[in-house]
User: Fold these one by one.
Assistant:
Number 1:
Amino acid sequence: MNKHPCTPPAPGDNIAALLTPALVVDLDAMQRNLQRMADFARQHRLRLRPHAKMHKCAAIAKLQIAAGAVGVCVQKLSEAEALAAAGITDLFISNEVIDPAKLTRVAELAGRVTLAIAVDSKLGVERLALAMQSAGSQIDVFVEVDVGQGRCGVAPTAAGALAQQVVAHASAGLRFAGLQAYHGRAQHLRSAAEREAAIHHAASLARAAQATVTAAGIHCPLVTGAGTGSFTFEAASGLWGELQAGSYLFMDRDYAENQPAPGAPVFEQALFIKSQVISRGEAHAVVDAGHKTYAIDSGLPTVWQRSDLTVTNGGDEHGILHPAPHASADVLPQLGDIVWLVPGHCDPTVNLHDHLVAVRGGLSDGVVETVWAVDARGCVS
Amino acid sequence: MNKHPCTPPAPGDNIAALLTPALVVDLDAMQRNLQRMADFARQHRLRLRPHAKMHKCAAIAKLQIAAGAVGVCVQKLSEAEALAAAGITDLFISNEVIDPAKLTRVAELAGRVTLAIAVDSKLGVERLALAMQSAGSQIDVFVEVDVGQGRCGVAPTAAGALAQQVVAHASAGLRFAGLQAYHGRAQHLRSAAEREAAIHHAASLARAAQATVTAAGIHCPLVTGAGTGSFTFEAASGLWGELQAGSYLFMDRDYAENQPAPGAPVFEQALFIKSQVISRGEAHAVVDAGHKTYAIDSGLPTVWQRSDLTVTNGGDEHGILHPAPHASADVLPQLGDIVWLVPGHCDPTVNLHDHLVAVRGGLSDGVVETVWAVDARGCVS
């Protein structure tokens, strides 16, 4: 339905030729990030199932799987369908689906790929079982536990009863796969000690949940969760068997502001917005990228490697640059200059774009190596 | 490049069948808004050129034009190209373009449609003239004046000199069309008196700019600008000849919080997110719509006609509902219930979606009348 008049860039184009604003991936940095996380998971004998809600791109998911990931997570059914249509065969919808019409599609999808889903209610399990009953296929079911996020998930004490419910529907194709235990709010606590404490608490809640499952006579095969801000702590806990981090691949301003965790792999910024100065005042410059180009739910972007410039909100289509408090107006870029921005939050920024331009050789003189479709862009249902 | 697996709804579908989350337009409300603004412009003998950056949809632009609008504004070249490709023939890019490669496309587009553009620099005029020179067509050029927004636009004292520059390039096809004078920051000052004062000040700056144009011996055909929060004041000024309001058609939570201006037409909320409760806690409910479904640059959504519920940020794909301070937990919707949200800001919310589902007969029992493509979704370049 989308009718973009702009021809996307082609492999071989110089980075200088990219029209602004453009969402650009530094391929060299991304591949180092990819390898560092794959190495970390391998060294810690943990499964890695990166969250594809970040990139929504089957080509990138395939690179992650080729490097050792067991599959990917998604957050929505339509995301799973889009990635399955593009060739991804092992998907975990790490979220609840309650609509019978959608659950029918979940069951259909479970017949085509290895599929898992999260549940946190008796109604959800019953409806899932009803949908699966007639499909004749199997689905892995994770009971989601609220381990501090305060969003979805049952209380730890209720996990065993819900696992029993799942097991009771084994004949419908439901296979109890373990616990979904993700603490989203822990990811951006700025000090490593705060994040460690939050995951320590999450682990105690997940262990309590696991105990109720065991007490119900059910084997709990796996605890899955963790994000880019906290995964070293989940890994150290001995409890989680699978890591779901996603942002590590591209990174963003928000994660860059975290104090690194001791011993954590270093991830480089790999996602950028190429923008251009389209207006200059005496004490400010205006670039052609606003919050229709980068998401600002986690704050504004920064200018890459330019601490002498600050960005303020210029609306949907503009960003306004000022000299930082210690800098003079001389540092402002001139009319027509290119300005590289680091988005505040990678996931919803990628979701604004139809493609990712992957560049080899850096931002100043790189060449487009490939253009990736954001296959599941806008797939919110 | 977009491969949505979800079949969009079809005309005739009942609103109950729409999968969540869905972006829904109440057609009855929208058409009343459309008519009220058209009537206002007609009664005040003003040109109406609604800003299509809000809906990015050619079908809606055609309805506006059929009701009397002279054409539409857009904010980006690629938006203009997308709407031109879908049949819109009178477009104003109310923004600066400085890249020669884009200006070549501006010139090409000017050969296919009636096109106008804004400028605020000598370099911009020179590059535009260079691009137009070889195209052999004409373009209307508005000198943008900063009337309080602090973003793009020349100082009022510099308008005459830039208009002279435009006129000097008449042989290249540049036609000085007047002044672009839009005060974005005035739109959401909450009291009508504050907005009136801001536009009063903007008018004094625009008049000063106009005087420098006249002093340069140049006729200033038109002052164009105004938004949904302020247009009654621009209309009353006797200075502006064209109104660019866009949000009036759909409205949003942010505009609803404005104190109405005296004598202003009343615009109804016409844009909604249909969402569903996918998880329930003892004291909160979680819906399946987060900030990948609605933009939060102007704050969170509210629940339509439910002042007993509050919405907090649940991340990319979740919204969290709590009882309002005066309400009990009994008011929370149940698992599976439908919840209608009013987005904080209509423009970037529409830009997240590939289509708008237009429903006749209200939210409780309406029927899909049409599904509109968001033709220029993601067109940021």
Number 2:
Amino acid sequence: MATVENRQVVLERYIEGVPKVTDMAMKIGKIELKAPKGSGAFLVKNLYLSCDPYMRGRMRDFHGSYIPPFVPSQPIEGFGVGKVLDSDNPDFKPGDFISGITGWEEYSLIHNTSQLRKIQPDDAIPLSYHLGLLGFTAYVGFYEICSPKKGEYVFVSAASGAVGQLVGQLAKLHGCYVVGSAGSRQKVDLLKNKLGFDEAFNYKEEADLDAALKRYFPEGIDIYFDNVGGEILDAALLNMRIHGRIAVCGMVSLHSISDPKGIHNLYCVVPKRIKMQGFLQSDYLDKFPEFLEHVTKNFKEGKIVYIEDMNNGLESGPAAFVGLFSGQNIGKQVICVARD
Amino acid sequence: MATVENRQVVLERYIEGVPKVTDMAMKIGKIELKAPKGSGAFLVKNLYLSCDPYMRGRMRDFHGSYIPPFVPSQPIEGFGVGKVLDSDNPDFKPGDFISGITGWEEYSLIHNTSQLRKIQPDDAIPLSYHLGLLGFTAYVGFYEICSPKKGEYVFVSAASGAVGQLVGQLAKLHGCYVVGSAGSRQKVDLLKNKLGFDEAFNYKEEADLDAALKRYFPEGIDIYFDNVGGEILDAALLNMRIHGRIAVCGMVSLHSISDPKGIHNLYCVVPKRIKMQGFLQSDYLDKFPEFLEHVTKNFKEGKIVYIEDMNNGLESGPAAFVGLFSGQNIGKQVICVARD
């Protein structure tokens, strides 16, 4: 088998605060396009990589989290879609498409198959859409954490993002009234005109977030799907209805960097009997088949729209990842490493 | 029937911030010791009154809460135990003892019987113990919100207070490891030597609450019963275990007055999948008989200790109530208006 160049995005050093492009570097390694005999591994050509905010957590020198940190000067890792080129694992054969944790590099030798899935190619579903584990986050958070009822009032922050766009659409399909917030007029247009939200607003244009929520939710909010934390969470707490539910999703951790003000309205959880719950999709993997069927079916019937922000080339990865933290992306941020 | 003097504690004015003794005043009214024919009401001689932090919420000019504000120059109201002197309600007869919402005054004419209960006198249970609706708060919060399992690590703040003392004892009876925090050495002694907590500490002597919790919970906290909010909540968030539960009880609202720093560690709810839930006992009234049986039985068997801080005389009410907010009370704060 040939030994080829393998371009990689490596972590330069552990970070604090918001990631910068210079925290990562391009490196050219070499790789033999072969899975060593007896390794049980397989060699994958990476096609699409997912840019997700949680990855910042792995850029810190902190070992107490649910997932270990990246190793400096080694490729960073993330969710990806790839094609098997060679395999020493009988369950994965050359030509198979897979999704799961892979390296930010052209080729990866994969040993750990614990959360890896084989993809059945389907002309109606682009390969890159299988990066949609975050769609699963939306599904789990909305159905398992929020216990939605038809007719309820749902608020989604970062609503045009990877998770938010699906939460809003699932809520609409469930018969809820849905309002989203986002950080630009273009995103607000998208929410209202393409993603079917009942209303949407640009939080950057609102001097008083509490007043904005009172305008959009005169009856209050039953379900708040929180993708941002910080001031929007604080305003939402003031506007929750009795027995309201707040699903707290990954990005809240980012606000802890940039928002030193803290949360002040948590006392609202008592008189309003609010349930606030953090979650990770990985606790609900038994629901994955149900999710895939539900979302795929609705997507094929045109009832769910999926918006990707696709950057081309591995070298576009660092900027695309960093862009997440200033809301550069519209829809799910994806890197195309190779088409096939 | 005689018309007699009726001493009352009235609200002087709506307040902001922490209540002061001067926000209330003693007033002498007159009352006919008779329930008017056709009123459906009954006349009660108030014996014991409960001092509860939630009452502060009714001293503000705010009508959006779950309970309306007090009326200035009218007696404040709270949970009490009384004896029926005269009645136009066939369900309540002279000589009956009752518990429920009554006025802070010597005699009250009661129309609203919605949360009112008749007490069966029992030599083994002092009458004032029936003010223990907050014991019910402990019961509901611990069993319904925290879903405790044997062997779990439980942390209780304001642990020698009305709610905390019972939460800790219920947790011990359930087979949990229980640590409480309180604001004086005397309270800490009480927790360890009388209430059966495994450990207890004085939060005022801890420069670093995070470090204190790590010392008492090297394995982390499964259940935090939060009676205070603020910095202790922030430190607890850092020390919760995966799938931890936080029951948020009334007093958190007080910290919103005195703690302008806000909560900063809420991001922990995501990787740790924490459930944080506010609650009110009034949502769980169907559990009241079960609570009464469980707690009464354990009390009679000497397995539950109940600590009251009893002040004598209606005129001691304002200072006792205000004292709650600086931790003056040890155990449940009660006012004895009359013995019988």
